[in-house]
């Protein structure tokens, strides 16, 4: 009996030690929200509806904000005209629309637990759970929408780009 018990303890400890690299405890997270963000980061990038891409998720401690980084599939002149005249209310409505889609997907998965070969089900489950956790805290949520061509938001539509020739000209900073 002792040998069986010892064998089980050894098997459990081996299994636990092998699982640790797959599910490491966070050495940096200071809250459940941060821990959730770290877990979701492992899924990135992943697909969303309409061929959008969920690029990344970040937690900014300075502003106590979770940032969802979403890249759109396409962009047109019509889109450009719509955002040019967008008000703060329009932006809020769009953010709510995105979150409501995530929440609807989460609730649907909870009620009908089938994946139907849908690879983004883990994203929806994880974000739905994270949203519920955020709702219990004072953490804010921000959504960063990127154009399909990875436009750099700091400089608007002006990308930080170098041609091969320009790249060759760059010297080490002394």
Structural account:
This protein has helices at residues 2-19, 32-41, 77-84, 88-111, 121-135, 164-169, and strands at 46-47, 53-60, 65-71, 140-146. With 174 residues, the chain is of the alpha+beta class. Strands 1-2-3-4 form a 4-stranded mixed beta sheet. The N and C termini lie far apart (69 Å).
- State Rg: 22 Å
- Strands, total number: 4
**Biggest β-sheet description:** 4 strands, mixed
Q: Name the average pLDDT.
A: 77
Strand order of the largest sheet: 1-2-3-4
The rough form would be described as globular
Structural class: alpha+beta
Estimated share of beta-strand residues: 5-15%
Oligomer: single chain
Element-by-element helix/strand order: HHEEEHHHEH
Q: Which regions contain 5 or more consecutive residues with pLDDT less than 50? A: 15-23
**Intertermini distance:** 69 Å
Report the total helices. 6
Bin the helical content: 40-55%
Can you give keywords for this protein?
globular; four-stranded mixed sheet
Concise synopsis of the structure shown:
This protein has 174 residues and is an alpha+beta fold. It contains 6 helices and 4 strands.
Secondary structure elements and pairings:
Layout: H1 2-19, H2 32-41, E1 46-47, E2 53-60, E3 65-71, H3 77-84, H4 88-111, H5 121-135, E4 140-146, H6 164-169
Parallel strand pairs: 3-4
Antiparallel strand pairs: 1-2, 2-3
